[in-house]
Amino acid sequence: MSFREDDNASPTRRTVLQAATGLLLPSWAAAQQAPAVIASDAERPVAAQGLQLGDPLGGSVMVWSRADRPARMLVDVAFDERFTNARRITGPHALEGADFIARQDLANLPEGREVFVRVTFQGLDSARSLSAPVTGRFTVAPLQGDDTNGRHRPRARDVRFVWGGDTAGQGWGINPGFGGMKIYEAMRQRRPDFFLHSGDTIYADGPIAASVTAENGRLWTNLVTPEVSKVAETLDEYRGRYRYNLLDENMRRFNAEVPQIWQWDDHEVTNNWSDSKDLSADARYTVKSVPLLTARGTRAFLDYAPMRPFDARESQRVYRKVSHGPLLDVFVLDMRSYRGPNSANLQQQPGDDTAFLGREQLDWLKRELARSNATWKVIAADMPVGLHVPDGKDAAGNAKWEAIANGDNGPARGRELEIAELLTFIQRRRVRNTVWLTADVHYCAAHYYDPNRAAYSDFEPFWEFVAGPLNAGTFGPNALDGTFGPQLAFVKAPAAGQANLSPYAGMQFFGEVNIDGRSGELVVDLRDLEGTSIYRKALSPRGS
């Protein structure tokens, strides 16, 4: 559906929030959405999880919401918070098979404009009563290159986005006495154009107890639901993990105002899963089949992620490119779905057992990087390139590895072979201005990869920035592997002997990227739980 802005609209910045999620809703919105049929509250659908905005592209965004019963999604779109001259879209049905989830793609929106959305669910019973509305707002992402009329823009718009990973892990869930998942409010207050969730969107393998003893004997008190009280095994338990996170007011408010780009990692299924994962000795699981758990975890992730399905060729594909005007292309990777088994990771030649991105994804990434005309190419990786991430030992006592590095500091071997191929391709094709963003290791850091100090040196230097956790235990720091020459520019992690620190310790981190529309300069800030910058690095763009 095409939308044109109302020249008389003058949107303000007053927050428009959701009534159905326990947040404030302006009286005008409630009045305009009075149900057409008088019905008791028990007869009306409820959108208890609010709404999410996702996969922002030039002139479009996905709108996600969930009802509590069979219903039909109705989406109103306007250019002011009073929904003057709103356009209504009759969206899809929300039915049992999809956990009553519905999503609607909004397209042909005027770039750079602030847009207000309102989602209502219409019941499918005889009364066909309406839910209370949930509302949100966002700024439409810019198109690439010339505008839709072929006119060249005098300059690109500034870009700001935030990133991080690791939500509700290690038993640190939603603590109302702490203020809930406060980091989501800190990120919202930065007013980003979008948010990149770098994986571990849930912790399906981490039970959440009603109370946990934190540092110095302090008690951490969690909200608890049946689905999070044990490891997830059924489809409903996996979905329940996402519903649990959406109990948090900070997250729901954030979701309604900041479009998101999701990727995933291991905890959406179970810790460190690959083809070598064996749950036979894990008494917590009655379902021992990792492929079956993967199928259920994948379905739940794709249900709750506010992302566009790829297409019928690969309906569960996660990797994709998201463009944000002429300044930025984000290459969202999937380092989980196509990997070989976790092993000693020391193979001399590439093969199925060294796959990490997998051949098809690796070739796609190389092709799209070479085609990109964006000033900056952000490679969104759910795992770091040069950090040791161990996965125990095999039957022979050899160390196994969960990520790319293999701990030998020597020439590229095992999964490092794919990364070496990629980095050399970037150098030889003169793909400029690549920056890697990641999470996974539960602390924040900045790494400079220097070919002059690397065992494998056929690449141009680049930066990798690590941010997280968002609401999980804090660990680290991890050792650096010398194959690609990473140099530690900054780290903030627990002191020696400390691990799994709660959010009470304040060591929860997110990253922020700002790109100046005039100079093209990219600035990375690593920020703490309160949103305070604890490290900053400015990078100037290089010509192609």
TrEMBL record:
Domain PhoD-like phosphatase metallophosphatase: 163-525
InterPro entries: Metallo-depent_PP-like (IPR029052), PhoD-like_MPP (IPR018946), PhoD-like_sf (IPR038607), PhoD_N (IPR032093), Phospholipid_Metab_Enz (IPR052900), TAT_signal (IPR006311)
CDD domains: MPP_PhoD (cd07389)
Domain of life of the source: Bacteria
Domain Phospholipase D N-terminal positions: 49-138
Pfam families: PhoD (PF09423), PhoD_N (PF16655)
Annotated PANTHER family: PHOD-LIKE PHOSPHATASE METALLOPHOSPHATASE DOMAIN-CONTAINING PROTEIN, PHOSPHATASE, PUTATIVE (AFU_ORTHOLOGUE AFUA_6G08710)-RELATED
Protein name in UniProt: Alkaline phosphatase
